[in-house]
Specification:
With 163 residues, the protein is α+β, with helices and mostly antiparallel strands. It has two domains: 90 residues, no CATH class; 63 residues. The protein is 38% helix and 12% strand. The strands form three sheets. A two-stranded antiparallel ribbon has the order 1-2. A two-stranded antiparallel ribbon has the order 3-4. Strands 5-6 form a two-stranded antiparallel ribbon.
């Protein structure tokens, strides 16, 4: 797609620029995830993809523009890097921006770190033990199994332990 002057003006009209190292916030329309979007040739496109094309003068190579600042509305190219879903998810976890691996802060958590540690301490791998622990702690058997096998409630030390 060739970027034309009108698109550049439309894009720039929604970017609130700050200093060179500050976030430049998108003030236009957003998608359901809070990222800036702009309608181009009858379809919605991510503002960061359009901004990347304006900066580099060629089509966006994808698959996604990641933000070092963790601000979905940021349009400062100094805060962007090209990456994939796996890299982006790893960055979210490393910066503690992902609820999936944050234990008690996960809205779907059914237990606490204290109980997780107790389950792991008491688990020996004997037949029927997971079922017995699940009954004792009032948890589903699948939850206890995932915990003692380090499939959920994974901390940095636990991740190292399982490798």
């Amino acid at each position: 797609m060739r970027i034309v002057g009108d698109l550049r003006r439309r894009y720039e009209s929604y970017v609130q620029r700050g200093g060179p190292d500050e976030c430049w916030l998108w003030t236009g329309p957003t998608d359901a995830y809070g990222y800036g979007v702009l309608k181009v040739e009858r379809r919605m496109r991510k503002a960061t993809h359009i901004g990347w094309e304006l900066l580099h003068g060629k089509p966006f190579p994808g698959p996604m523009t990641c933000h070092t600042c963790d601000v979905a509305l940021c349009q400062n190219p100094r805060h962007w890097y090209l990456g994939g879903h796996q890299q982006n998810n790893a960055d979210k976890v490393a910066r503690d921006r992902c609820s999936r691996l944050t234990g008690e802060r996960n809205g779907r958590a059914t237990t606490t770190w204290a109980i997780v540690e107790e389950l792991r301490r008491r688990h020996t791998g004997k037949y029927g033990e997971v079922t017995a622990l699940a009954k004792e702690f009032g948890l589903d058997r699948s939850v206890v199994s995932a915990i003692v096998n380090y499939k959920t409630w994974v901390s940095q030390s636990a991740a190292v332990h399982t490798r």
